[in-house]
Write a structure and sequence with these properties.
This protein has 2 domains: about 45 residues, Orthogonal Bundle (Arc Repressor Mutant, subunit A); about 120 residues. About 70% of the residues lie in helices and about 0% in strands. It has 10 helices and no strands. Helix 2 crosses helix 5. The longest helix has 22 residues. The N and C termini lie far apart (about 50 Å).
């Protein structure tokens, strides 16, 4: 367990301490959104939060410690936005994906930059792997446990949605609600069984 994780979980951490740590995590996401993960340093995060550098080094022992904590915050943010996704309701699912990839694009880009950074920083990999279970968790609710080829269909739909989000972040398309809905409907098609998905 990292030093920052111990401090965050410790009952000795005061309300002021938790508020400071949260402010530093907010600042870290802002730095990544604006300048990318390479710009993330204790000094940059502290300056963004309006706190001394010593505050950042107190709560986060090193850069990996800081990155892991920011990734966990990103996962929680992602789950709060995309986690309610209802794979049986195309309109609702499309609205959720569009909100995340279009309306909250800068935050979503920062999230995916952190996710890709896990390919080079082993400390991030366990949490990055967890991230990928979240979408499949939600899609799994669309199929009964005894559905034919259930695991394959869930995985296929998750890969399609993830690819769609990346395309929207990179190219800004599809963009309109109608186009996003069509793309999401196609991505969720493997989960459709006897017209189980809600029609328009």
């Amino acid at each position: 367990m990292s030093p920052s994780a111990r401090r965050d979980d410790s009952p000795r951490l005061t309300a002021k301490g938790r508020a400071r740590r949260d402010a530093l995590l907010d600042a870290a996401l802002t730095v990544i959104e604006r300048d990318g993960p390479a710009a993330l340093t204790h000094r940059a995060v502290a300056a963004e939060a309006g706190l001394p550098t010593s505050a950042a080094t107190y709560y986060f022992a090193d850069i990996d410690d800081l990155l892991v904590s920011v990734l966990r915050r990103s996962i929680a943010d992602y789950d709060a936005t995309v986690g309610p996704l209802d794979a049986l309701d195309v309109d609702a699912a499309a609205a959720t994906i569009r909100q995340y990839a279009i309306d909250e694009r800068s935050t979503a880009v920062a999230h995916y930059e952190l996710l890709l950074l896990a390919t080079r920083r082993p400390a991030l990999r366990p949490d990055a792997e967890h991230w990928y279970t979240l979408l499949e968790r939600d899609l799994a609710t669309a199929l009964p446990e005894d559905a034919q080829d259930r695991a394959t269909r869930i995985s296929t739909a998750a890969l399609a949605l993830d690819g769609l989000i990346l395309r929207m972040l990179w190219r800004g398309e599809p963009h309109t609600p109608a186009d996003v809905r069509a793309a999401v409907a196609a991505a969720l098609a493997p989960l459709s069984d006897d017209d189980a998905m809600t029609s328009a």
